[in-house]
Amino acid sequence: MIFFRRPLFPCHLIQWTLLTRSQSSDVSNKIHHTDLKDVPLERIRNFSIVAHIDHGKSTLADRILEVVGAISISKDNKQILDKLQVERERGITVKAQTASFIYDYQGQDMLLNLIDTPGHVDFSAEVSKSLASCQGVILVVDAKQGVQAQTVSNYNLAVANDLAVVPVLNKIDLPEVDLDSCLNQLESLFDIDPNSVILASAKSGIGIEEILDAVVDRILPPLTHGQGDSLKFLLQDSWYDQYKGAVGLIQVFDGVLKLGDEITSVKTKKTYNVKSLGILTPEEVSVPAIHPGQIGFFTCNMKTTKEAIVGDTFHRINRPVEPILHVSTPNPMVYSGFYPTESSYYSNLKTAIDKISLNDSSVSIDPETSPALGSGWRIGFLGLLHMEVFSQRLQQEFDAEVILTQPSVPYKIIPKPHLVKKFGQEIWVKTPKDWVDKDVAETYLEPIVKGTIIVPEEYMQQVASLCSSCRGIAEDTTFVDQTRVRMVYTLPLSDIVTNFFDDLKRITSGYGSFDYEDAGYIHSQLIKVDILLNGKPVPELSFLSNPSKARPTGKIKVAKLKELLPRQLYDVAIQATRGKTILARETIKAARKDVTAKCYGGDLTRKQKLLKNQAEGKKRLRAIGNIQVSKETFIKVLTNK
């Protein structure tokens, strides 16, 4: 099949846009259950929209829904599928969202199931989960920015899942776009024929029908049997509804799921009764049945939200089947402590975390107790943005105020052979209190990532210096085109988890893009650094570090404590130590009281006696004094505020 590019003269663009919008304004795409039943399997297409962040995925989804008549045409249609408040405020997609609609293709009604996915690397698990239910993807590339790091990752993910790829060059109506350069990038990196690339503008509505036609032409229908009385469907996603409880997004592979059916989970072996069924158009529409190849949602009598396991397979009761997928939970890359601002808020915060985690299966949650902050949880995330979005959702959706501690990464320790029986094959270290010394440890391991950076050529030296300062090792450097270069580095996760992305944007004037993937663990020289106040350790302030980073990090910690702690009647020594080695020190000078103020003249020995007694009193206070660190101080130090 040969695909031709659309002419790019401005007059053609304007005429085509007006024609498409006028035609689609009269379309009504109300899907009824009779429509779904009458759509054969070969006329169903399941596809995702994938792209780097800010390349126009959500806008493209808006225009598609307008063209097919699923939503009315309006200038206010922005991020229709982004239903979370945090998504609209930040202008990013956090959760993959689904919409089903009928598309008239050459006189035939096609049922298209669209999934709009996130673009940030922290939500790559959402993309992977979505692709498991698709047969193809629309790969969107910004015509002005070109191929970015996450574009490469998404393409490789689609190919690994054996999915058809429909390449789309978006924002072609922007000034100063270099279409030839972008097409060359797609050809050189992905071996995509430039003639197969669809030129479009999601904002203006250019090329939308051409994209939909390509979805029908190039993407295969879902692979399913749909014969006999067998039933098999996959739980793609889940969320909490205050009226319905746990709601599951599903795709039916075999059989027909009907209201009242008794179904059984492959993972939990528990049986449920189907209470309601529906599809998203993107509005919720109730249906009596969901047929093979279709995507919809269901509710049942799940007693707890934890029973909705994303990736689980369901079947008809007493009719066992093999699992459709073996979906593994992604490993958390970053951990942070979550604590209620007041101990009385613990129960409410626990409920809020449980409900949000139902909608975000990529987080790991473990109870944790801190003498300074009370009872809370150690929660694992896929990145810093993931952590920020999770905490913001707690505030916006459940009005829950939380205290977040500084993020840390998980380390592994291999114990000495004669201690394996006592400690196990490996010891996971998520907090400094889990640390074991060298008398137990045979090997220390820290997590690393494979980072892909795409930047203009003139910033290569600055990026190389940044990666070197983060203990990065160069793996590969290739030119994407004549002006941009792709740099691949192996980097320790602990060094990029905080400010790396911001530093990259700063030194590249915003032109650098960064994507990373888990690369396992490597041997490392790790140490535990303790913070002492007058020689007494404060366990909550301890941290783990590479020896090269321990001293500068320790200096920052003690300087902050000096700024925050109140003055005492005696000197307070603040130290960062590694064993008996002092890495950094600050001293809070004593608050001085003028004990000689009441002496008006007289013998000098009287003043000397008063000063001597004062010095001896301060010495006794320092020996028995206990430095009280307030909760507010802990919060400011632990949260790095």
TrEMBL record:
Its EC number is 3.6.5.n1. It comes from the Eukaryota. SUPFAM superfamilies: EF-G C-terminal domain-like (SSF54980), P-loop containing nucleoside triphosphate hydrolases (SSF52540), Translation proteins (SSF50447). GTP binds at residues 51-58, 116-120, 170-173. It is found in: Mitochondrion inner membrane. It is a peripheral membrane protein. InterPro entries: EF-4, EFG_III/V, EFG_V-like, EFTu-like_2, G_TR_CS, LepA_C_sf, LepA_CTD, LepA_IV. Gene3D superfamilies: 3.30.70.240, Elongation factor 4, C-terminal domain, Elongation Factor G (Translational Gtpase), domain 3, P-loop containing nucleotide triphosphate hydrolases, Translation factors. Keywords: GTP-binding, Hydrolase, Membrane, Mitochondrion, Mitochondrion inner membrane, Nucleotide-binding, Protein biosynthesis. GO terms for biological process: positive regulation of translation; translation. Residues 42-223 form the Tr-type G domain. The keyword Protein biosynthesis applies. One of its GO terms (molecular function) is GTP binding. It catalyses: GTP + H2O = GDP + phosphate + H(+). GO terms for cellular component: mitochondrial inner membrane; mitochondrial matrix. Promotes mitochondrial protein synthesis. May act as a fidelity factor of the translation reaction, by catalyzing a one-codon backward translocation of tRNAs on improperly translocated ribosomes. Binds to mitochondrial ribosomes in a GTP-dependent manner. Belongs to the TRAFAC class translation factor GTPase superfamily. Classic translation factor GTPase family. LepA subfamily. Belongs to the GTP-binding elongation factor family. LepA subfamily. This is Translation factor GUF1 homolog, mitochondrial.
